[in-house]
Design brief:
With 184 residues, the chain is mostly helical. It has a domain of 126 residues. 61% of the residues lie in helices and 4% in strands. It contains 4 helices and 3 strands. A 3-stranded antiparallel β-sheet has the order 1-2-3, with no helix packed on it. A hairpin with a 4-residue loop joins strand 2 and strand 3. Helix 1 packs antiparallel against helix 2, helix 1 runs antiparallel to helix 4 and helix 2 packs antiparallel against helix 3. It starts with 21 loop residues before the first helix and ends with a strand. About 4% of the residues have low confidence.
Length: 184
């Protein structure tokens, strides 16, 4: 609105309140849960390093072994919650709910192996437990970065044969060498 001589400046537009869309809120919740799960997984490595210092002396390392076990339970709970959020609220993002479901399943396997090592002294399983922990670390770092990418809007690009005409999203033929509408 402009000002005319002798008139007061007024605004007739209603006060706008913006609310964050549900998908954005859900993505933020998912990212937060995965980030805290990532921290728990990272701390697992620290705690394992502390108790492995007492190589073979379970009594001396018992406190840190228990901290490591509880940390695994926390990581599992966070990963499971993130999976539920991704599946229920971000279902169109298959990469996120499948990735978080894989994370949850791998943490279950990792926890099971850790229990066998700690409770039944099956120390040879450490040769599987530690590399699986490294894979978990990679997955738990990949998921938050993946969550920052936009969801795909439509079908993926299809490979074309060089020199053959293609069509853009509106169905118009394009010049394959420039990706612009072709001139007829």
């Amino acid at each position: 609105m402009g000002l005319s001589e002798g008139s007061a400046m007024t605004s007739t537009s209603p006060r706008e309140t913006t609310t964050e869309p549900d998908a954005a809120r859900s993505l933020r919740l998912f990212s937060t849960l995965i980030a805290v799960a990532a921290l728990a997984v990272l701390l697992q490595g620290l705690w394992a390093g502390i108790f492995l210092e007492h190589d073979g002396e379970r009594d001396a390392a018992e406190k840190w072994i228990n901290v490591h076990a509880r940390g695994g339970e926390v990581a599992l709970a966070l990963a499971a919650l993130a999976t539920v959020v991704a599946f229920l609220k971000l279902r169109q993002r298959r990469d996120l709910w499948i990735g978080s479901a894989a994370l949850t399943a791998l943490i279950v396997l990792e926890s099971y192996l850790g229990g066998l090592i700690g409770d039944q002294s099956k120390d040879t399983l450490t040769a599987v437990h530690v590399p699986l922990a490294m894979a978990l670390m990679g997955l738990v770092v990949w998921l938050p970065f993946r969550a920052t990418r936009r969801a795909p809007d439509g079908p993926r690009r299809v490979a074309t044969i060089p020199g053959q005409p293609t069509k853009n999203r509106s169905g118009q033929p394009t010049d394959p060498s420039r990706g612009t509408p072709s001139r007829s």
